[in-house]
Each structure stands twice: as C-alpha cells, then as structure tokens.
C-alpha cells in the first residue's frame, strides 16, 4: 500500500488553527499565567489514539476519542499534512518523524544501546521475550520488547499498555511508585493488590506472577531498574507456564539489573 503523500483528502478544509477550530486556550496551566492550547492537546490525543488503536481508521480513532467522525477526520488530515502521520489505505499510522521523537524519549529515560544489549543477552540466555516498561502517567507501558527468533507459544497483543495490578511489571512499578500513587488509583476505582503485596515486592526486589495472558497460562518475572535512587523502569521476562523455570528467569534478570546499575548504563 502507498502512504498518503501529504495532500488533503477531497472535501476536507484544513485551517491554520488545527482544522477549522479557533486556536483556543484550555483551562490547564502549564506555568503561572500560561494556559494550554486546546487544539494542540487534541492533536496530541489523536497521535496517542493512532498509536494505541489496533486498526486506526477514521471510524476507530473517532470512537477511541469519543469524537464525531468528521472532527477526527480533520485532525487526521492535519497529522498527515504536517508529517506526523501517514495514510495507508483506510488506516493512519505514525510517521518516521514520530518514531524519531519516540527514540529521543527512550534515550531520555536512559534506555541506551547498552541496556538494549542486556535485553538481547537475556533473550539469548532464556530464549524468552524480554520487555522494559515504565510508568506512563499512572499506568505501565512497554517501551521496548526483544523476542527470540523462534515462533513463540505466547501470543502477543498489539497493545503496549499492560495491567497496572496483575502484571509483574505493573506490580514492580507501583511497589516503588509510592503510596500516594496507589491511593490515587484506588480512589479512581482501580482494583489493586493489598499493600502487603507491594511490601513483599520491595522486600524481595522482584515480582513473580502466574496468570493468563491472551488465553495462555503464563509466568512473568519483573525486577526494578534504579538510577539516582529512583525506580526508572521494570525489566521483565514472560514464558508459557512450565517452559522456563521462574527461578532461572529471576536470577538472570537480577544479574542483568546489577550489571546495568553497577556499570552506570542507566542514566539518572
């Protein structure tokens, strides 16, 4: 399929102020006396929706955002014309410009080539998928995944966000994320394990979860990665139950964590 060359769709007028909308100022302050631009926030939400939607057509993006189809269409056209999106048939995808920004964000998190090398080494040792997750606001998100070459028994979802309460990485990130964050999530109606579980994760220095993922019985192990006294992310491995021993995964992950932290490969 051929990507949209950047021209407008027939019949769609794109104004200089984000597709027909007046450049309005939102209610949220980013600094004293400065208000956010509502249209800019909406454009960013469109990019997020495209990234998080399995089949990002106009209809699907509109439904994900709760917007009228015509409004979503205008914003998507704006994304194409500005170079942040490309069109493939009926679907919209993030452009390489967005990928470059994403790579810069990963570098800011400290996910350097050396850390990726540790992830590749873990795949070589365990022959299982290895992931690195961070807190995206108040939910964990996988920002890097390395998989073995062989066909996996675990089926993957296209969704990068993972459970804040039942995933090993989610439990690690919340265990070190602070009581206030956990209280806020509970107040928002999100069911979390009891505090004793998070105390146990901090005491052990890892989390092991037995559960089901995409219809498979799986075992997942995650360890925190620290820099400057702060948990920067969670390194994890997942396997179909019974294939790789959880203690073996735990030991390899802990050694990789120690190498990353001891050698200063994860930047503050």
UniProtKB/TrEMBL annotation:
Region: Disordered, residue numbers: 1-35
Keyword Magnesium: no
Signal peptide start-end: none
GO biological process: negative regulation of DNA-templated transcription
Boundaries of every IclR-ED domain copy: 97-268
GO MF terms held by the record: DNA binding; DNA-binding transcription factor activity
InterPro entries according to UniProt: GAF-like_dom_sf, HTH_MetabolicPath_Reg, Tscrpt_reg_IclR_C, Tscrpt_reg_IclR_N, WH-like_DNA-bd_sf, WH_DNA-bd_sf
Domain of life: Bacteria
Record-linked SUPFAM superfamilies: GAF domain-like, Winged helix' DNA-binding domain
Coiled coil: none
Protein name per the record: IclR family transcriptional regulator
């Amino acid at each position: 399929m051929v990507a949209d060359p950047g021209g407008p769709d027939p019949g769609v007028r794109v104004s200089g102020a984000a597709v027909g909308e007046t450049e309005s100022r939102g209610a949220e302050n980013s600094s004293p006396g400065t208000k956010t631009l509502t249209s800019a926030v909406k454009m960013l939400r469109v990019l997020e929706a495209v990234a998080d939607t399995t089949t990002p057509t106009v209809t699907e993006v509109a439904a994900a955002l709760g917007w009228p189809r015509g409004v979503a269409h205008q914003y998507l056209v704006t994304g194409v014309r500005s170079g942040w999106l490309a069109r493939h048939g009926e679907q919209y995808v993030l452009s390489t410009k967005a990928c470059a920004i994403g790579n810069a964000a990963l570098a800011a998190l400290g996910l350097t080539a050396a850390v990726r090398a540790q992830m590749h080494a873990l795949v070589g040792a365990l022959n299982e998928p290895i992931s690195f997750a961070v807190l995206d606001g108040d939910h964990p998100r996988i920002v890097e995944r390395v998989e073995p070459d062989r066909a996996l028994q675990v089926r993957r979802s296209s969704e990068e966000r993972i459970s804040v309460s039942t995933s090993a990485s989610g439990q690690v990130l919340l265990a070190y994320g602070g009581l206030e964050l956990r209280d806020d999530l509970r107040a928002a109606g999100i069911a979390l394990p009891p505090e004793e579980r998070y105390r146990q994760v901090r005491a052990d220095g890892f989390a092991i979860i037995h559960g089901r993922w995409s219809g498979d019985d799986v075992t997942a192990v995650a360890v925190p990665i620290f820099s400057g006294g702060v948990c920067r992310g969670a390194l994890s491995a997942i396997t179909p139950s019974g294939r790789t021993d959880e203690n073996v995964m735990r030991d390899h992950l802990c050694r990789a964590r120690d190498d990353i932290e001891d050698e200063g490969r994860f930047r503050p």
